[in-house]
Design goal:
The complex is a heterodimer of chains A (111) and B (123).
Chain A lengths: L3 E3 L2 E5 L4 E7 L6 E7 L5 E8 L4 E4 L2 E6 L4 E6 L8 E8 L6 E3 L3 E6 L1
Parallel strand pairs in A: 2-11
Antiparallel strand pairs in A: 1-3, 3-8, 4-5, 4-9, 6-7, 7-8, 9-10, 9-11
Chain B lengths: L3 E4 L2 E4 L5 E7 L6 E7 L5 E8 L5 E2 L8 E7 L2 E6 L8 E8 L1 H6 L7 E3 L3 E5 L1
Parallel strand pairs in B: 2-11
Antiparallel strand pairs in B: 1-3, 3-8, 4-5, 4-9, 5-6, 7-8, 9-10, 9-11
């Protein structure tokens, strides 16, 4: 079946890089997404990567995709306190615009 | 960018009453909207896919008679929780698929834009 897994918690110091990891099981996934959720709010799309790419960079964000291992990561450079939030990875299942979400990684940024 | 709103943002109701939640795409037309449910510190679980002008498609285990979905126009979908009970208390989030915008900006991303969520508490 379809399953997306993430580590639940990450703590980093302000200014350091954060790396959030995700694994998925559906090899037919076409797109993989990273969403950010702040307390009490909906989800904000941060970035996405197409399954035939292995890297995508967007300002402070770098997405790496290892399709063989079905592993996705999000690197946030120069992490700021405003980056504290829950980060969800999601895969778009093959053939449908249906998103399967991981449990979310809570990122805590401390001084 | 694409904006999705939800109303109300929070609601408290008595057990046995029905609650309607609205999801609107403000600056684009959405032929497809999605309804999710999120429990505290958990992920989003897709409840149903709402297609304009047709019946919603419910995920396995979601009671369609309890969670009524109506997608009457290209910018509005509603979720009605009927005869709500305390176990229905949750954070409900909708998303809308920007098909028209996708064709112009990113033809193949089929991005879903999420609303801010509605917190339902059933007493």
């Amino acid at each position: 079946g379809e399953d997306v897994e993430q580590s639940l918690f990450l703590s980093v110091r302000e200014g350091d890089s954060s790396v959030i990891n995700c694994t998925y099981t559906d090899s037919s996934s076409t797109y993989l997404y990273w969403y950010k959720q702040e307390p009490g709010a909906g989800l904000q799309l941060l970035t996405y990567i197409f399954s035939n790419m292995d890297m995508k960079q967007d300002q402070r964000l770098t997405v790496l995709l290892n399709k063989k291992d079905k592993h996705l990561s999000l690197r946030i450079a120069d992490t700021q306190t405003g980056d504290s939030a829950i980060y969800f990875c999601a895969e778009r299942t093959g053939g449908y615009n249906k998103l399967i979400f991981g449990a979310g990684t809570r990122l805590a940024v401390h001084p | 960018g694409a904006v999705v709103s939800q109303h109300p943002s929070w609601v408290i109701c008595k057990s046995g009453t029905s609650v309607k939640i609205e999801c609107r795409s403000l600056d684009f037309q959405a032929t497809t909207m999605f309804w999710y449910r999120q429990f505290p510190k958990q992920s989003l679980m897709l409840m149903a896919t709402s297609n304009e002008g047709s019946k919603a498609t419910y995920e396995q285990g979601v009671e369609k008679d309890k969670f009524l979905i109506n997608h009457a126009s290209l910018t509005l979908s509603t979720l009605t929780v009927t005869s709500a009970h305390p176990e229905d208390s949750s954070f409900y989030i909708c998303s809308a698929r920007d098909l028209g915008g996708d064709r112009l900006r990113s033809p193949s991303t089929d991005t879903q834009y999420f609303g801010p969520g509605t917190r339902l508490t059933v007493l």
